[in-house]
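Schema walk-through. Below, the input block comes first and the output block second. Nothing else is stored per chain. Lengths vary across the set, and this one has 251 residues.
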Amino acid sequence: MLRVQRWQCEGRVLTPEEARDRREAIRDSRIERLRRADSANDRPEERPTGIGTGFRVDADGHLLTNHHVVEGCRRLRLRQEGRILGDAELVAGRPDLDVALLSSEVSGPVARFADSPPPAGRLTAVGYPVSGAARVESATARLAADPGDLAGAEAVFRFRGDLKPGNSGSPLLDGRGRVVGMATAERDRVKAYARTGELPPAGGIAIGAEPLIAFLSARGIAVSVGDPPEADEAAVLARARRYVVRIDCWR
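--- output ---
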């Protein structure tokens, strides 16, 4: 508040009743601003207990993620680049494959799956990793997998690269921007060191595109297959950031 000398004041002096009404109006205005600010953010008791990643697979707002991301959640909220998009519901899941299908009212671009094995083993994960404070913006991670693993018929394959908690459910894209798998677990390097005496490189396990497509097809979800319309890598990743979301879980 700006204070001036009495002889510098302009206007008239308020009566005690007018001064009281003015103070009450200022108080009510401040309370309303605080109420609006509070409603725009999560209250401390409403903060999520778990965070993961998911990605949109059709124009109806269906999302794919890991089953362990949403297991036991009483509420699922979707965020994208810091914005709250709305809530989602669990439609179907396969704990043995660690995949889950969610429904939402969020529309936008959808992921395109690979219709053939990628020509090289270089991959990019797009997701919402947790590093210190929970990220509210998407991030990419450079990964690699052996072409033979990507071309195999196994439900899961191993990859090399550094992923963090929160990346569970992240799509793994090949150089053309096609989904070739979904990250599901980090490699337990401590356990591997205890067993072999050697520290293996960072990496993890992903579910392949074929079992993901089969899971969705069995539930009536038709996915887009083939190359995305974007040609360069920057455009492909920019588009991916529009169909990848953060999933907040309250248990």
